[in-house]
Amino acid sequence: MNENSVGEARDAAVGAAMNDIQQIETEQGVTRESVDAIRQRLLKLANQRDLFPLDDFPAPGADAEQSNVMYRLAQGAQDRFALYAQSGRGTVETPPHNHTTWAVIVGFHGQELNKFYQRTADGGVEQTGQFIVEAGSGVAMLAEDLHSIHIEGSGLNFHCYGLALERLDQRQYYSESSGEWKIFSAVGEIREARTNLQSC
Q1: Threshold 0.85, pTM exceeds
Q2: 3 state SS of 133
Q3: For 33, left (φ over 0), alpha (ψ -120 to 50), or beta?
């Protein structure tokens, strides 16, 4: 396929996946089972590897301030059901944080270590587990679930949220240095990757 046909085919496949995801939430609500069904649907999308050539999602250059960038693949009405491709290089890390909406991450290229936490009685966090997201695998979280991301080297993964990142201005993260919970409002760079610029 040429570049234009790849973009059109990608938009069509992404649109079909997001329509299915919206239907899953409409029919099942937001539960552990429904977000896992969303994870499984996104894995099917990520398996269409020819639609997501890595050259279409370059990571920031070595002189860039940030080492990762989000590419917007879909964003529905009222900013619901947003899908991004996160492309990174070098070291990418986040503190433990929630999302205030459901979130699903599936792998495509490279490895993304997800660590999971629970709040402690003294207001801190303790790790409860971890999982490596890579091609063929993913994780699904509810609004108040806590995780952190750790990447070394190049990577491209899909991040899907019940509400667009720009609207997630009340996310909380735990600052280990201060021992406090703070608002994690920074979104970082988001680049437009929709060919038809139509919401799904």
Answers
A1: yes
A2: strand
A3: alpha
Q: Which CATH number is 3-192 given?
A: 2.60.120.10
Question: For 133-165, what is each residue's pLDDT tens digit?
Answer: 999 999 999 999 999 999 999 999 999 999 999
From CA 79, how far away is CA 61, in angstroms rounded? 29
Domain residue ranges in the chain: 3-192
Specify the range with the lowest mean pLDDT, choosing from 128-132, 137-141, 194-198.
Answer: 194-198
> Computed over its alpha carbons, how large is the radius of gyration of the chain?
16
Alpha carbon separation from 194 to 72, 181, 191 (Å, rounded): 7, 35, 9
SS3 content of the chain, % helix, strand, coil (to 5): 25, 40, 35
Q: Which residues contact 150 (CB under 8 A, 6 or more apart)?
A: 92, 93, 112, 113, 114, 115
Considering only CA atoms, which of 1, 20, 15 is closest in space to residue 194?
15
Task: Name the 3-class secondary structure at 91.
Answer: strand
Q: Are 146 and 98 in contact (CB under 8 A)?
A: yes
Q: What pLDDT does 43 receive? A: 98
